[in-house]
Structure to design on (358 residues):
């Protein structure tokens, strides 16, 4: 139900990167210009501790490993480092290693000479060559297959590489920034990333905390996204109802900042009032207060708990993996057909999650 009679809940102004102890004005201005939508917004102490490293890190040419869940702003952080560095005039190339077919990874990164393989009629430069004088950002670097990891390690050590089918090595002046969705200590064990490559990439590390660990920043981000999207609504949106703010603060945000942006954008687009109500927010419904999942006969209570767990678990996997059923099923260690049946069982709209992290 819309609550037009309620006074809009004014959110704190959140357009700055560091509202508590602002970074030098010139640096802040360059950061805003370099990161687009300004997702480096917040007052959380843990978040600020990492963000304040950016100007220092940018001044060096060291490799950087950025750790953080999907949607926490790892690429935004990488672009900020690039924009403040001496390489800012050069190209910034970003690639999601997990999205590349295994057989094409080396070709994408290092390129190939003509006739390197069947169908390669002409030579092709890879991302390293295209990043000359600039920065190459490798997201989900732990997804790289072993042969590509070896070649990347050699490049980081020697600043040279060999395109597929080539008999000579080539040099490139490129800074490599990498990111992973996994905790640093998990990939340090060598199960997904070679230890020697991990240590080469992890000269400097940044950890972007998930939004659920910095809930106090939700109002700042909401205000920022409101100012960005409110002109898309036929009715000027002034703010949120108190219950809407409470619901945003209570949500765990498995898709992090990207998910929050999508929720606000959708609420603005479909708003029929200048005040966004709780009902306007496209979020999973919480378990109603007063409902005891464990009451009643054992079998019935167990069925309710299992049913609730399945729905929440599937929704979070789909949110984290942008609605990619195959990837979500793989993480759940279920075959795609069985996972899809669970989606149908709980009437989950997969398209909603594809939009969330697009």
């Amino acid at each position: 139900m819309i609550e037009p009679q309620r006074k809009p809940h004014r959110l704190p102004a959140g357009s700055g990167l560091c509202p508590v102890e602002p970074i030098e004005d010139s640096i802040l201005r360059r950061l805003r210009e370099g990161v687009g939508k300004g997702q480096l917004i917040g007052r959380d102490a843990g978040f600020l501790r990492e963000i304040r490293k950016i100007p220092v890190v940018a001044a060096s040419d060291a490799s950087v490993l950025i750790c953080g869940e999907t949607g926490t702003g790892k690429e935004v952080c990488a672009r900020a480092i690039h924009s403040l560095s001496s390489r800012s005039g050069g190209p910034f190339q970003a690639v999601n290693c997990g999205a590349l077919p295994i057989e094409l990874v080396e070709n994408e990164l290092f390129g190939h000479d003509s006739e390197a393989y069947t169908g390669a009629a002409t030579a092709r430069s890879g991302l390293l060559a295209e990043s000359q004088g600039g920065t190459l950002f490798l997201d989900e670097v732990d997804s790289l297959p072993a042969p590509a990891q070896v070649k990347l390690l050699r490049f980081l050590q020697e600043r040279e590489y060999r395109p597929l089918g080539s008999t000579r090595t080539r040099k490139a002046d490129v800074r490599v920034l990498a990111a992973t969705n996994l905790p640093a200590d998990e990939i340090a064990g060598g199960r997904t990333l070679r230890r020697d490559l991990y240590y080469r990439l992890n000269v400097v590390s940044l950890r972007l905390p998930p939004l659920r660990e910095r809930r106090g920043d939700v109002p700042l981000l909401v205000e920022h996204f409101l100012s960005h999207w409110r002109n898309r609504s036929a009715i000027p949106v002034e703010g949120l109802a108190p219950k809407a703010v409470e619901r945003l603060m209570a949500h765990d945000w498995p898709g992090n900042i990207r998910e929050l942006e999508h929720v606000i954008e959708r609420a603005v687009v479909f708003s029929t009032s200048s005040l966004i109500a709780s009902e306007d927010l496209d979020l999973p419904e919480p378990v109603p207060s007063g409902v005891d999942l464990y009451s009643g006969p054992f079998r019935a209570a167990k069925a309710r708990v299992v049913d609730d767990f399945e729905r929440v678990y599937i929704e979070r996997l789909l949110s984290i993996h942008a609605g990619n059923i195959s990837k979500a099923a793989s993480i759940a260690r279920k075959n795609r057909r069985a996972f899809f049946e669970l989606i149908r069982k709980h009437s989950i709209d997969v398209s909603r999650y594809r939009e969330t992290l697009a």
Q: What stands out?
A: The longest strand covers residues 175-180. The beta strands are 64-67, 92-96, 135-139, 160-161, 170-171, 175-180, 204-207, 239-240, 275-276.
